[in-house]
Amino acid sequence: MKKPIIAFFVILLVTGCGLLSPPPPPPPRDNANPPPQENTTDKAAQPEQAPEGVEAAPAAGGFTLTSPVMTNGGKLPATFTCDGQSLSPPLSWQGAPEGTVGYALAMHHIPGPGDTHWYWVVYNIPPTTLSVDAGATNFGTFGTNSVNDERVYAPPCSKGPGEKLYTITVYALSAVPNLPDPAAVDRDTLLAAIADITLASASMDVTYERGQAEGAAPGPVEEAIQPAAGGEADCDPQGVFAPYADLVHISCDESYMYVETETGQPDHEMMWGITAWILRVPIPFRYTGERAWKIPRDPHWLEAHAAAHARGPIAMAVNGVPIYHFDKRPDVALDDSYVYDSKYDTAQQGELDHCGGHAGQGEDYHYHIAPVCLLDHHDLD
What we know:
This protein has helices at 187-194, 220-224, 232-235, and strands at residues 39-42, 64-66, 91-94, 102-112, 115-125, 131-132, 141-142, 164-173, 198-208, 248-252, 256-261, 293-296, 313-316, 322-324, 357-359, 365-367. The protein is mainly β and 381 residues long. The chain folds into two domains: 1-26 and 227-381, no CATH class; 39-220, PEBP-like (Phosphatidylethanolamine-binding Protein), CATH 3.90.280.10. Strands 6-3-2-1-9-8-4-5-7 form a nine-stranded antiparallel β-sheet, with helices on one face. A three-stranded antiparallel β-sheet has the order 10-11-12. The longest helix has 8 residues, at 187-194. It is globular, with a radius of gyration of 22 Å.
């Protein structure tokens, strides 16, 4: 039976081509939880410490950091640790001083005197970015963590009994830090580079105890990030995903369509026709629940060009496989400054199979060009 013509949906979601194990999940959904209290730190004036057991209120008009899933002085949900899904937590900030041209972010833990562990280092965050989703990787340049020295979020996994304190800090910067080599940027390097250009900072302290989630029922965080069920007709009015119902499941809420796949892999042969040995084998990944791909149901055009990153999906095929840009450089910005170089073109270098895809460094399968081989199974009339 011929299948309807393929259709693609642009998705406002970016991940790392090389570090997609697992890929970025959708952010936690808004819920009925009360808004978190905020902790602020301003370079010009430090707020007095609140009495023990009492949350300090943010200074009026100050730089503030909040999260939809945790509060200052509260618990770090297991979802964002090695005991859960190992996701980076969602954050929001506001009230940056005048003259802010960008932000940096760090998360650290002090296990003992003279010892600091860091889990999250990000800089070159644009001034227009005022929030990050759970598991987001597309909002700045990642530095290294102290767990495995990789340029990714390392979920807290501290050993030993008792609660551990973790501090997340966002810095408002008056200039772009001079950090040309991301692989050499740890927390100390970042702090040294931004010491003289930090206008304000906002922090959030959270605690976590290993085993706090064992045997417990799913809390409001886990419930909040599950895709809501929706009617197939309402979600997919044109039926573009219907021919791949055996691979893809669609659900919706008021704002988003969620595309779920059990393996993240197509039904066509993979890795056939590659002429450049890339030392990779596609491994199935389950993109379901909070890891489902998220597509806005009512997208809005940007008023002007904005930079994207090549190592992340820019579209999705109707078989549930994401489509990336053909450029494989990790930090190249796809804006007016982009300069084409054939040695980074995955198609020109022979790194793609007959359908325009391959396994990334995270062993997930994705396309880098339009998967025209799917047209072999569609009625073009």
